[in-house]
């Protein structure tokens, strides 16, 4: 009986580790030059596992079907996960609606800000993306700067923020080059 209990404990730990690994999803921009990290909500809601397993349509059906009966405190998690799923499906208009609704709930939801930031980045709105990543990294913990390490969710936001700032710097450089050409300077 003791051996069976130990095996069950090991299976639970392995399942928890596998779920944690699946929480972060990478999405590449069409050009493949950049990748952004999306996260499912920290709270477990019906449909999350399907999305984490890559079964986006099934996860979306479950999340949307259960939204009305989801307890109020978990509705933000549903919206955040729908934001993620529609972003991965590249249905950006629907994704933005869910992302904005998740952020508007005002639950200090890092994942909602992070995922909307990814969506903004995929749309080329790097300034808006950077603002969302800063918010995702600092909610309730650091008023002006991102903490260096320690919180996995903050680390995802920090990596995404670094990517967005890099893209902003590249855009600024391209704009300078265009201005030089337009003026006719060598």
Report on this structure.
By secondary structure, this protein is mainly alpha-helical. It has one domain: Alpha Horseshoe (Serine Threonine Protein Phosphatase 5, Tetratricopeptide repeat), CATH 1.25.40. It contains eight helices and two strands. The protein has a two-stranded antiparallel ribbon with strand order 1-2. The longest helix is centred in the last third of the chain and has 32 residues. It starts with a helix and ends with a helix. About 19% of the residues have low confidence.
Write a brief caption for the model.
The chain is 66% helix and 5% strand.
Instruction: Return the CATH class.
Output: Mainly Alpha
How far is the N terminus from the C terminus?
81 Å
| Residue windows where pLDDT falls under 50 for at least 5 positions | 4-24, 28-33, 143-150
CATH topology call: Serine Threonine Protein Phosphatase 5, Tetratricopeptide repeat
Biggest pleated-sheet summary: 2 strands, antiparallel
Shape: elongated
Name the CATH superfamily assignment: Tetratricopeptide repeat domain
Proportion in β-strands = 5-15%
Number of helices: 8
Number of strands: 2
Strand order of the largest sheet: 1-2
Element pattern in H and E: HEEHHHHHHH
SS-derived structural category: mainly alpha
**How many domain modules?**
1
Helix content: 55-70%
CATH architecture: Alpha Horseshoe
Arithmetic mean of pLDDT: 78
């Amino acid at each position: 009986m003791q051996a069976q209990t130990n095996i069950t404990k090991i299976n639970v730990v392995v399942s928890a580790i596998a779920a944690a690994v699946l929480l972060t999803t990478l999405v590449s921009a069409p050009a493949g030059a950049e990748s952004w990290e999306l996260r499912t909500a920290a709270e477990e809601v019906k449909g999350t596992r399907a999305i984490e397993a890559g079964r986006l349509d099934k996860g979306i059906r479950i999340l949307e079907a259960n939204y009305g009966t989801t307890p109020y405190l978990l509705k933000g998690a549903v919206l955040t996960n729908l934001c993620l799923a529609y972003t991965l499906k590249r249905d950006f208009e629907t994704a933005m609606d869910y992302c904005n609704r998740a952020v508007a709930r005002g639950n200090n939801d890092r994942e909602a800000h992070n995922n909307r930031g990814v969506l903004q980045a995929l749309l080329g709105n790097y300034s808006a993306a950077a603002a969302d990543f800063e918010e995702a990294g600092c909610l309730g913990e650091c008023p002006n700067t991102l903490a260096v390490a320690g919180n996995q969710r903050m680390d995802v936001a920090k990596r995404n923020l670094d990517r967005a700032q890099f893209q902003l710097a590249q855009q600024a450089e391209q704009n300078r080059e265009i201005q030089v050409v337009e003026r006719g300077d060598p």
